[in-house]
Fold each of these.
Amino acid sequence: MAHRHRTLGLLRSAIAVLLCGLGLAVAPSLAGASSGAFVIGGSSLNPESAAAQQNSDRDGNKDVKCASGTFMHAVYVVPGTWGTYPTIAGIGFQCIGPDGSEPTPSWFGSDAYSYNIGCPRGSSGILDALTGLKVNVDRYVKDFKARCGSISTSGDVVDVGYQDDWALDKVQDNDTKTALTCPTGDVVTGLRIGYKKKSNGVYGFTSVWLWCSGVGPAPSTTGGTTTTARPGGIVKKPLPKPRPATPAPRVTTPTTPKRPGTATVKR
C-alpha cells in the first residue's frame, strides 16, 4: 500500500517504542484525547478518492465524522437507484471510543433497510477500527468493503486486511474498484461523500474520501511523572446493529442478500 504519511507513521511508532522501553512517555500532541488505553488524534482528509462517472455533476460534498477522540468501527450501507442505475442512497456509521463506549450510529441520506460491514472485536485489550474501504463505482458509487486494523493497548495499529464481502453484492466485472486506506498507524474517523440529490430528498453517492486520524498511547500522570497507561483489558460488545427498518426490494439480486444488521466477519 502506498501511504503519503508512511514515514511519519513509522517515526511515531519508533518513538512510542523507545519511550515505552524507558517507561516514560511525553503526552502526545493529539487532539481529542479520551480516557482509555490509547488516544485518537485530530483528523486530516486523505487526498485519495474513489469517484464515479457522475461525480463531475454532483450537487455537493458531505462530511460525516466521528466525535473527537473516537473512530469508525462499522458502516451501514443503504442500497438505492438513480434512474436505472444502482447506487448507495444512504450511509450510517458506528463510532467507538478507546474506552469501548459506542455512541448511537449517525446517518447521512436514507436510513432505510441497510446492510452493515465492520470490524470484529479482538482479544482482551484490543479494539478494531476501520483503516480503509474498498469502493466500487460505475455511474455512481455502488458498493463498499471494509478494511480493518487492530489497535493494541499501547496504541499500535496492526492491519488485518479486508474483513467482509461487498455489502450489497452489486459488483460487476467492468466496474472500477478503488482501495482507499489511511496512512500506516492511522484509523478512519470520517468520510467525505460526494452526492447528487433529487427534489424529493433521495440521494445518489458519487465519490468517497477518508478522514484519518493518528493513534497514540494514553498518557497517565502519577506523582508528577507522565507514564504510558496500559489497562488490563477493554470490555467488548457485539458488532452494533443499525436501527430496524422495513425491507425494500433490491435492485439486483446476483446472490441471496444479507440480513440487515449483521456482518459476516472473516478471519
Amino acid sequence: MRVLLGCVNSAVSLVGYDLEQRQPFWYCPGNLLRVCGICWHEQALWSASDTVLQRVDAAGISRTGLPGPHDNYAHSVKSLGDGLLGVADTGNSRVLLMGGGMKALSLSPLEGWGNDLPFDAIHLNDFVLWQDGLLISAFNHQPFSFWKKSDLNWKAEGWGCLYYLRRHGGRSLTRIVASGLDCPHSLALWQGDVYCCSSACGTFFHYRQDEHGLLQELNRWKVTDTHFLRGCLRLEGGWLLGGSSQRHMEDGGGMTLFWLDDAGSVTPLPVGGPGEIYDIIPWDDALMPGICRTLQHAPELDVEGTFPARCSLPAEYGG
C-alpha cells in the first residue's frame, strides 16, 4: 500500500511512501507547494497553509483566501461530505465550514471571548465530525501565546484539551470532554471510539464516550521518545502514525512513520531527513498522476530555504 504524507516547515511538502517497500518513491519540493493539512475532496487534493486553501488536480492549482481578522495559520483540512469542506483556522481559534461557493460558517469554542480574542489563542489544530457537532483538539484553554512565552513547561504538563462543539440557536456551544494531553493533534474515529496523538510526549490515546458525554481513556501507547507524534491513518491491523524530527533537540533520525499494530507493537519506518509530518492520507492511483504532472510544471514560490529538485513520478506508479 502507498500513502501520501503532508509535511509542514520542511524541504518537501508532499511525500509518496510505499509501505511494502518501506521507502519514499516521490516528493514535491516545498518551494512548489506549501501545505499543512491535506485531504481528498471532490476529485482533487486540498491543502491548508498559512492564509489559503489550495485545490490541486490535473487542471492546475487554485487558491482561496481565508477570512480574518487574524492571519489564519491554517492547519487541518477535512472533507465532511455533501460538498462540505472544513479547515482549522488556528490563527482565529475556530473551524471554518465551507461549501461549494466557499462561503464560510465559523464554529469557535471561544466565541464568547468577543473581539479581543488574540492570535492563535489556544492553538486549535484538528477536528472530526462527532455526535451532532465537531470534536476539536487544542493545546490549551487559556491564551496559548502567553504560556508559550512564559517559563511554564507547556509542552509536557498536560494542558491540551479536546472540545465537543456544536451549533445551537445560532451560537457555538462548547464542552471540554478530555484533557491532560501534551500538544494534541490528529483526531481519528474508529468503531465509534476516539483516537488522538499526544504529540509532545509521543503517545497515542484511545478514548470512549461515557454516559456523561465525556471521553474516558481506554488505552494509551508510548510510540516514540524521539519524535513529535502527529498524523494518523487507520489501516487494516493497526495505525500508521507520523513522526517529526524537528520538534526535539536530540537527533531523532529524520522524518519517520511508526506502525502501531493492534497488539501494541511499534515498528519505525524511516522516511527521510529533518522535517515535520503533519498529515497522512491514502495515495490515490487515479488522481495522483495528474496532480504530479501539475506540480512538475508549477512555478516556484517565493519562500526562503534550500529545496531539492523536482521529482517525477516513477513510471510504475502511473506517471
Amino acid sequence: MSLILLAQEPGNNQSAWGFALGMETQTLGIESLDRHKPMESLVSSGQNQLGMTMGINYRKIIWRGLAFEPGLFFSYNRNKVNFSPGSQERFQFVDIELPLHLSVTNQKSGTFPVRGKILFGARTSWNFFQNPAEKLRFLPERLGLDLGLGVAIHCDKWIIYPEVVYSHGINNIHDFTGTEYDYFVGQAVRDKLAFRLLFERNK
C-alpha cells in the first residue's frame, strides 16, 4: 500500500487560501403585473449602479486542473426602484455570501505564466440591510447559479486571478406582505456581474 501511495501523482492534494477584491453591478429584475400600460409600469427598476465585493477564498485541487473553491464574501450593491406616480426609493443590499464553485484551470505548459480558467457553481447570500418596506419589500435570502471566466497569472510568489463572474438569481425575492405596490409586482430577482482580482500565495 505504501508503494501505491508514493506512486500517486504529486500535487493532487494541494490547497491554498486567497483573498479577493472587486467591483460588481446588480440588476434588479421586477416583473410588472400592470398589463394595461406596459410602457408605463407602476413599479420599475432604475439604472444599475456599481457596488463592491471582497472576501476570502479557499482552493482545493481535486484532480489535475480541477479544484473545489468555497469562499466567504461580503458585497455591497444598491438599486433604485421607481414607483408611479413620481416617487423613487433606494434599496441597499449588504450581503454575506457563501459561494461553492468548481474551477477548471489549464495545466501549465512550458514557462508561459498565464493559464485560462473556468468556474461554475452556486452561491447563497443574506442581505443584512433593513430597507424601507412601506411600498415594497424584498426577502433577504438569495440563491444564485454562477459562471465565471478568468486567467491565472503566475507572478513570483503570487498567483493573480483576474475573473469575471456572472451570478443568475434563481429565487423570487418579492416578499408579498400587502404593501402599497404588492399587487402590481410579480416576481423579482437579483442578477449580479462581478469583476474581481483574486490573490493566492504561490507554493
Amino acid sequence: MILLVLPLFLLLFCPSPARAFDYDFEGRVKADGAHVFNSPPGYDDFDRQAELRLGVLGNALQRDGWKLDYEMTGDVLHVGGPRVQAGLNDEFKAEFFRAWLRLDRDNLKVRGGRQKILFGAGTIFRPLGFFDTRDVSGIVPETKGVDGVRSTWFFDETTLMEGWAVPARKDDRVVWGLRGEGFIGGLETGVVFQYHPKTELSDLPNFASELYQMGYHVKGEYAIGYWNESRLDVESQPGRNPLRFETVFGADYTFALGQGLHVAAEYFVSAREKEISIPPELQPFVVEHRAVHQVGVSFDQPVGIDIVWRVFGFYDVRDGSMQIVPQIEYAVTNQAFLYLHGRWGTNVNGEDNIGRFFLKSSAFNGTEPELGAALVVYF
C-alpha cells in the first residue's frame, strides 16, 4: 500500500528531532446469527457470521508542530448460511479495515492509505456517499473505506476545503474530487465535485461508468432539524452525456417522551435519462420507471441506562415494496453489547412483484424475514 508512505516522506522536510512513538491496541469480536423465515428451497434457514477486528493506532512522530498519526486495523470475517450459498458473501475474508498515516500541522491534515471518506447531511439515503458501503439499519453500521490520499485545510472550526484521490485499479485512472464546507446564513452548507472514471472498485455504486459528479448539501435547525442533499451525474458516453439526478429531503425531532424519542424521516428521489448506464444488479428494478421515489424513517429511544430500541422503515412508492427493521441494544457491560434484531418485508402491490426493499424469489436475496441476535465485545 504505497499511499501509506506519502505523509512520511512529507514529514522528512521537518528537520528537528522527533518525540516518542506511542500506540494503543483496540479491537472487537462480533458474533451474529439469525433464523431466516421462508428461506427459498435449497437454502439454509440459519444465517451466521463471526468477526474479529484487531488494530493499533497512535502517534508516530512529532517535529516542530508537525504530527504523524497512524492506524492499522485488520478484519477477519467468517460467514455461513444462505448468504454464502447465494454468492452474496464470501465464506472467509481477511482484509484491512483501516490502514493510514495522517500528517497534521495547524490547519492542514493529509491522510494516505485505507480510510473513510464520508460526508453529507443525509442519514438514511446518501446521494453524496460516493464511497459509502454501510447498511444503515445494520448492527454497528460502518463503511469499509477506500485506498486513497485526502488533504484537508481548515480555515476555521466550521469552514474547510478538501480534496482526495483514489486509484481506480484500472489502468492509471484515478477518482478525484474537491469539496468545500462552511456555514452560510446559519446553515451548514457544502458543495462537491468529483471525476469518476471507470474503475474496478466493485463494492462502490456505478463503478463501471465514467462520470462527472457534482452536488451540495444544506442542514439547519428551526424547532426541528432539516436537511437537503443532492447530486447530479453526467455520464461520458460516445456522442452523448446522459444525466442522473438524486436528492433527499430530511427532518428529525426528539419528542419529550420517556428519555427522549428521536424520529427522523427522509424522502428520496432519483431520476435518470434512459441512456444512462445502470449497474447489472439494479437493472431488474428500473426497467419500468426512470424515476425512483422512496421514504425512509427511523425511531430510537433509550430505556434506562442500559437499553436502546430502534426501528427502521423503508418504502418504495413506485414498486410498493417495504421493509421494517427493529433492533434492541442492551449494554451487558461498558464494553459488551447484546443486540436482538429482525427484518420483515412485504410488497403492498403483491408478494410476487419485483421490489427494491422486498423481493420474493427462488434464490436467496437478503430481503427475507429473519429474527436473530448479535453480541459485540470491544477491547
